[in-house]
Amino acid sequence: MIDQVRTWIDAAQRVVVLTGAGISTDSGIPDFRGPQGLWTKNPLAEKMSDIHYYLADPEVRKLSWQNRLASPAWEAKPNPGHLALVHLEQRNKLHALITQNIDELHQIAGNSPDKVIEVHGTMRRVMCWDCGMRAPMQKVRAGEEDPKCRVCSGILKSDTISFGQQLVPEVIDRAMRVAGEGDVFVAVGTTLQVYPVAGAVEVARDAGARIIIVNAQPTPFDDVADTVFADSISEVLPKIF
Ligand SMILES: [Zn+2]
User: Fold this and answer.
1) What digits encode the pLDDT tens for the residues 6-36?
2) Residue 163, Cα to own-chain centre: how many angstroms?
3) What's the whole-model pTM score?
């Protein structure tokens, strides 16, 4: 099956890739929802990820900032799965890289920032809930327990989409548009259970793209996919790209 998929990629001009948490677990970043996930082990972590608790409770914010300092994502390095996507871009085949991840490992690996569509934002930037100011996370990481916006003294949070928070419509629109522009669509390390992002697979399929899924667990789209790999992402991606 690997050989077959390689020929599809070799023949493709525009490959669209969607990545989820599964591509970063080999970099030491735990999947929030999986059996070993942070939320499964620590329900308080889920509270910290809910915008309503975060805005309402300074204690939740303090814990959230502490927790962020300790995140393994700051030290994480891209793995062979990320590097395979850089190779795909170097071959001029990567049309767009839609990611549900907030770790920026695609950009750190070497993918062009303008190819990467971060539907859930990035943990490496901070935003003010009140005035919309954005700045690198680095500037506030070492700061106070519950840092305030320097412009308006509003509540700061990481520039990521929390539970209960709206996705950014322009970002989702762009993701759906590019999903329909590829000749091959590859979904990697995502269970494809969260809409609207999962809908990108339908858009790609309706536009006639071949669908390839690489994920350890079954997804609702396995039966419409041309191929499904349940093997290790860091092993499959270098082989097919
Ligand atoms: Zn502000």
Assistant:
1) 999 999 999 999 999 999 999 999 876 554 5
2) 15
3) 0.92
